[in-house]
């Protein structure tokens, strides 16, 4: 305490320091002074206009009345409970992963508290408040338990394996909860739920496809490498929106008329298109990763007697994937936002639902409110993905070799 | 050379896959004929709708579809399947709607679509009887005292950019030899903002859209009463259901459901009195509409429309007649039926049902 006080006393008063800092960084020359003034004016005006809109002139009644529509779309009444178990599972796994691999950063804790407070203040009420409470309690509970008790104990490896397995099963579990045992058919999935379902399925499938085609392109077999290259170049050669239309109008005609394949649902078509489209991009990212692994690694693996398959899966791929995490996550965030394009193939995702809500008579002309809100939802998910990837990078020690 | 051999095999493989695809397509086309049977087998009507037009097709907060067009989807489902709720709604953008129809993704398109020669011919659609006669109109501030377009000399008019509306506006003012300044906008919200700031004195769009915007005009800007929609209409926009060309049976079913609902309105049969009229029809025309015996003992002709002779009973029970659908969806927008083109031909409108006999 005394030492700290001495340090503080040795420094100049804060206003002197602030003035010095400002002079050095903001007003060091005439040009910089001008830049500072312009930036302050523009930033200030934008902040003021945004705050005034959000707090004063916006009418958030349209969101309040249409929360269900934006989150679930046309999901049938009385079936909403199907959404909760997968959400709980996600929160549980997120909590466990954070405790096992991550480190609690103040910024993440603040975001968690703020978003929970936001949800409770504006988004949930009645039974949903209780159900969300269960989920948040699960997240905090598993985080605390795994951080304090499991980490460093002899169960750590086991817990990590269970958690990884849980993540692998999460998307199948989500699909099972939505469609299983007399579930809701996919044409009624909607709102943000639809974005999440399409994005998560496509992410997993695209990662698998991407790795396969990256290995294929790097293969020494000419047919395999040519087919892989052809796939990548063809898919990347046309815009996503064109592929989505092809999935809508052309794909059913190419499917064989067996097993009812031609009646393939729109959601499944969207998942297929997104998987194959993103798969091509991810293949190129992974190929970059493969090339970044030094040749010596492969030679060393051969020298200790590993075969081709084990060299790839144990030595090359782990290093390759680790090196391209930032690019991969960037691509996945792009995929997440691109899922709003399903609105053009007759599906009602969050953006489509928001646009539909402002056709209700009492909310005509409330475009700015709904679009801002939906943008906020997309940003929140993208932000969480970005934070998770940073935690992952840290846990895997990227850049610290 | 090894690679060139490989190349040839690849070409061969691709060609075979392509042929297989073509063969499959031929097989699949069999179901194209007999749309009516396909809908009955599926037990559900796939209806292409709009999810963003007030009064015509939009999503309620609970996620259900609602609107004037949506009610006609429900009517067709009631007639064909006996259940007005057996509809899968497929929200379509303006650009994709005819592709969806022609590619057989939907059974019927009821999405405030104007019947034009090009769409009927080149686009491969077949339009049934019109359900709503819309047309371009002009809205002004009530205080301006403007009562007709001929009063609008030298005025500024707000209009959506790049739509047929812009061209119609030009034609109408050229016709009257009136000078004006157009002010074009990309979307309705910026247009409304400009109108509120009095950057223009007139606002032109389809009358149904003007009425919807007027009814939600905020109180702080003067409320709906501060605006007047002029009675003159200067373009024809007949809106109605469309099916794919080439299936007359299905076309007839959809067409006669629409006609039946207009006919029921003319005869005064609706959801409130359909049960009485079934047990005791008040006229032979009602008996013919509902497919019930008439006391004179005259045998009713079978229409052979492919659906039950009593198909209008379920339509009226579950959805109602034309007037009920109009009252439910269009009147709340601020467009009364009396005095418009959509009034019955007996009351000065042009809604006229061919006889059901």
Could you characterize the architecture of this molecule?
The complex is a heterodimer of chains A (401) and B (357). Chain A is an all-alpha fold. Chain A folds into 2 domains: 14-57; 66-396, MetI-like (MetI-like fold), CATH 1.10.3720. Chain A has 18 helices and no strands. Chain A has helices spanning 2-10, 14-25, 30-57, 61-72, 84-100, 106-123, 127-150, 156-179, 191-217, 222-236, 240-249, 251-254, 266-292, 295-303, 308-323, 325-338, 350-357, 367-396. The longest helix of chain A has 30 residues, at 367-396. Chain A is globular, with a radius of gyration of 25 Å. The mean pLDDT of chain A is 84. Chain B is of the alpha/beta class and 357 residues long. Chain B has 2 domains: 33-134 and 237-357, D-Maltodextrin-Binding Protein, domain 2 (3-Layer(aba) Sandwich); 136-235, Periplasmic binding protein-like II (D-Maltodextrin-Binding Protein, domain 2, 3-Layer(aba) Sandwich). Chain B is 39% helix and 16% strand. Chain B is built from 13 helices and 15 strands. In chain B, strands 11-10-12-9-13 form a 5-stranded mixed β-sheet. In chain B, strands 5-1-6 form a 3-stranded parallel β-sheet. Chain B has a 3-stranded antiparallel β-sheet with strand order 2-3-4. Chain B starts with a helix and ends in a 28-residue tail after the last helix. Mean pLDDT of chain B is 85; it is low at 21-32. At the A-B interface, α4, α10, α11 and α17 of A face α1, β2, β3, β5 and α7 of B.
